Amino acid sequence: MKKGWRIVLFLVVAALFLGAVSVGVGVITGANGDRIFQTLDDRYHLQVYYDYIMQVYDAFLIS
User: Fold this and answer.
1) Which residue has the higher pLDDT, 38 or 10?
2) Distance between CA 19 and CA 26 in Å, rounded?
3) Of residues 63 and 10, which shows the higher confidence score?
4) What are the sequence ranges of the domains in the chain?
5) How many whole angstroms separate alpha carbon 29 and alpha carbon 23?
6) Could you tell me the CA-to-CA distances from 4 to 12, 16, 22 in Å, in that order?
7) 3-state DSSP call for residue 38?
């Protein structure tokens, strides 16, 4: 079981690394951050998740 979690962790780290490299290459080749964020937001609705997390955080902060 321990070996299985190592494989899962390796795959997650590899995916994050490849994503970071992809964004880095995009920025180097002339893409701007707003366009990258807009593309990710259109596909994964990042702003919705961000707003939800901030509302939950504010609710815990108030109480």
Assistant:
1) 10
2) 11
3) 10
4) 1-30, 32-63
5) 10
6) 13, 19, 27
7) helix
Torsion of CA 53, 5, 7, 22, to 10 degrees: 10
- Collapse the DSSP code of 45 into the 3-class scheme (helix H, G, I; strand E, B; otherwise coil) and give the result: coil
Alpha-carbon distance of 52 to 58, in angstroms, equals 10
Which residues contact residue 41 at a Cβ distance below 8 angstroms, ignoring those fewer than 6 apart? 47
Dihedral sign computed on CA atoms, order 40, 17, 53, 27: negative
The C-alpha atoms of residue 27 and residue 11 are separated, in whole angstroms, by 24
pLDDT tens sequence across 32-53: 778 878 888 888 888 899 999 9
- Write out the two tokens for 3: 């070996």
Question: What's the chain's length in residues?
Answer: 63
